[in-house]
User: Fold this.
Amino acid sequence: MANVQELQHPLIQHKLTQMRKKETPSHNFQQLCTEISRLMAYEVTKDLETEDVEIETPLMKTMQPEIKEKNLVIVPILRAGIGMVDGFTDIIPTAKIGHIGLYRDPESKEAVEYFLKLPSDVEEREVIIVDPMLATGGSAISAIDSIKKRTDKPIKLVNILAAPEGVAAVQSAHPDVDIYVAKIDEGLNENKYIVPGLGDAGDRLFGTL
Ligand code: PRP
Ligand code: URA
Assistant:
């Protein structure tokens, strides 16, 4: 069964509370999304592979660890996942970025794929899918399905807010994918929105309310 980790750091929880507030404007919401993503990235990448390389300090030659040049591909689920990319690339600038476009059909609430572009060396990199929201899990499961057709490398899923229903759905469909969240909320409302939640993450990030 996939592992799920709630990252309880007080800085993450404090910033998430600011994101939830309905009066938080888009530019602050974006900033908070980036800051939480950066803090989550630190934890999510703690098992990133390193290799020893020879360097020269002002005093001598020495072998020291560096993360591999081909390390990660970060895959935001469009649109809202875009809001998490900078937080990851701030600390791992050599990561490549793939994109997967999915929207939830407003009637069926099912994920519909409209775009996919991954780097040509995706098979040589671990994959981290980012999306602020894991609600029913439909979008995440569909993204993982698509990416698994293109690589056998390990895949992680990083969400800021999750509903227990979404976590369970991903765990059942993809038991090999580790899930990292800032908070697992109470559940979903009748419109399949996370409650208490933060509303529509894409609309709040991009001001399309
Ligand atoms: C949101 C969110 C996730 C999805 C989660 O995207 O960013 O991708 O819903 O819901 P699910 O777990 O039930 O699939 P949305 O479809 O609103 O598209 P957007 O990012 O373009 O606003
Ligand atoms: N997508 C969002 O943006 N918010 C939710 O609460 C559920 C899905």
User: Anything to note?
Assistant: The chain has a mean pLDDT of 96.
